[in-house]
Amino acid sequence: MTNTEITQPARRKPRRRGRPTLLTGKTMELLTRATAAGLPVKQAADAAGVSRSSFLRWMAAGEDAVESEQEGRLDVDSPNPQAALYARVTRARAVAVARAHANIEEAARGAVVSETHRSWTDPVTGAHRSEKRIRRRPGDWRASAWLLVRLDPNPKSFDEQLDEEEARIRAERGETPTGGPLATHLQDLAARLQKTLAQYEEEDAVHDPAVQAGEPGAVLGEVGEADVDGEG
Fold this sequence. Notes:
Layout: H1 25-36, H2 41-48, H3 52-69, H4 81-109, E1 112-121, E2 128-136, H5 141-150, H6 158-172, H7 180-206, H8 209-212, H9 216-220, H10 225-231
Helix pairs in contact: 1-2, 1-4, 2-3, 3-4, 3-6, 4-5
């Protein structure tokens, strides 16, 4: 009796489709923590190791998903990673802004430097008394003035910021706002327009009555009286 070994065909590895996204859980956490620390978009993207354009693109897509799919509700556990990133970063930014405003208000109002408590017994009445003394640092009105100046009543959306970022990248590459193919098309159109205008000028000259009558001044230019007298 002979033993026959049956070999199973080697399984093919699943083919990866498309480019893997950079928006991983780790990247999302780094972006959220950097935003909570008060860093702006550029510095938060640098801290997470991604580009500013990618961060803005994810936030813009997440904002659209929240409005269209979640009726404006911020869900940090959304199955859509871009919507989850938008919810986390938006909440972190709100906390950072609230903390910064509280610090500014404290500076304007004056902070507590020290607080002491003292208790004693009145030697005359024998009553027990207590006293609390609070020392405050004087407030600074410039903190409130700075806050009023910095408040933006019309903040830019992420779509507007993304458009500005793409325009900045095109400017750094030396590209025109219309792009390469469209610029070439405009150049060809300008050349054809100049050629057409030249043809119109030639047709106008041919149909001009002065040219048809054979008047030399119509083609060579008018001759002045001084020139005619000079010829005798």
